[in-house]
Amino acid sequence: MSTIGHILPSNIASLILSFLLGGISSLNAQPSFSADSAKISFYSYAPIEEITATSHKAESTLNLNDGTVSARVSITSFIFKKQLMQKHFNEQYMESERFPHASFDGKLRDELIHLPDYPQVLKTRVQGELTIKGVTQKLDEEVTLTRKDGSVIAICSFKVKLSDYNIKIPRMLIKNIAEEVDVRLEFSY
Predict the structure, then answer these.
(1) How confident is the model over 6-27, as pLDDT tens digits?
(2) In degrees rounded to 5, what are phi and psi of residue 178?
(3) What is the CATH number of the domain that holds 103?
(4) Which of 21, 27, 127, 165 makes the best surface tag, with the fewest CB within 10 Å?
(5) 126: which residues sit within 8 A by CB, 6+ positions away?
(6) Which residue range is the domain that position 7 belongs to?
(7) Are 41 and 183 in contact (CB under 8 A)?
């Protein structure tokens, strides 16, 4: 009886250790993920007008081994409620023919390997460089990562100051367009 008592705990410990290591190795077996769905939206509040636009055509990759993340979105993929806003956005403000994409390259502060397989939320920071209209600025923002049904869902919200990216607002439209816009990213890897 005492032999069984000593063997059983070590077998349980081995089983738990195998389970934990097996879970980690399965994550490491697929270190890089691509976003299978993406949504980038922005919102601008100004006294005269509110402006919103959304793109579902962004691309992003996430590497679990080193925490690197990259994203890219076509400027012309943003859809507005008013077609004239969309035209002005692409032609006058973003010069989308000259600067067709916005991109981000960075790194998560914490590793995703710590996310268990059941749904759980991890808040961390992502640091990197955001390039809009050919101008690159450093970005350091909080990101929420959720592991759910074999996917990692990343959500990040931040503000973009238009003048930091050489996006000029004509004086006569200063009450129509805010100097800062709220940006929200949602990627499912």
Answers:
(1) 443 433 333 333 333 333 334 4
(2) -70, 150
(3) 2.40.128.110
(4) 21
(5) 69, 106, 107, 108, 109, 139, 140, 141, 142, 143, 156
(6) 1-30
(7) yes
